[in-house]
Specification:
The protein has helices at 14-25, 70-97; strands at 2-8, 34-44, 47-56, 59-67. It is of the alpha+beta class and 108 residues long. It has a single domain (2-97), classed as 2-Layer Sandwich (Double Stranded RNA Binding Domain). A four-stranded mixed β-sheet has the order 1-2-3-4, covered by helices on one side. The termini are far apart. The mean pLDDT is 85. Associates exclusively with 100S ribosomes, which are dimers of 70S ribosomes.
């Protein structure tokens, strides 16, 4: 999985980039079909915010989070993305169990 970390009107330091990559990279252990992830860090009026978009096989997941500092925002973002990825994985596995069909018809 490729993780791109960028900043909007702020300079992203190497420790911040590594922290974001590590946190978002942990999500991959739940779902292997992720291809690219884009993380954008920015500050808006004293609020530190982080946005991320994950491109996965069959879906695009997006989340946004806010925190007291940039590390807290990244933690909240990782938690939100983790829940979304688990939900997506559950949907995919449910469809696979049903043979890909939402409802099966009975033929008698």
């Amino acid at each position: 999985m490729q993780i791109m970390v960028s900043g909007r009107q702020i300079e992203v330091t190497e420790p911040l980039r590594q922290y974001a990559s590590e946190k978002i990279g942990r999500i991959q252990k739940h779902f292997d079909h992720m291809t690219t992830t884009s993380v954008v860090l920015y500050v808006e009026k004293n609020a530190h915010k982080a946005d991320a978009t994950i491109h996965a096989k069959g879906a695009t997941l997006a989340a946004s989070a806010e925190g007291a500092d940039m590390y807290a925002a990244i933690d909240a973002l990782a938690d939100r993305l983790d829940r979304q990825v688990l939900r997506h994985k559950e949907k995919v596995s449910d469809h696979d169990r049903n043979g890909g069909a939402h409802m099966k018809r009975k033929t008698t």
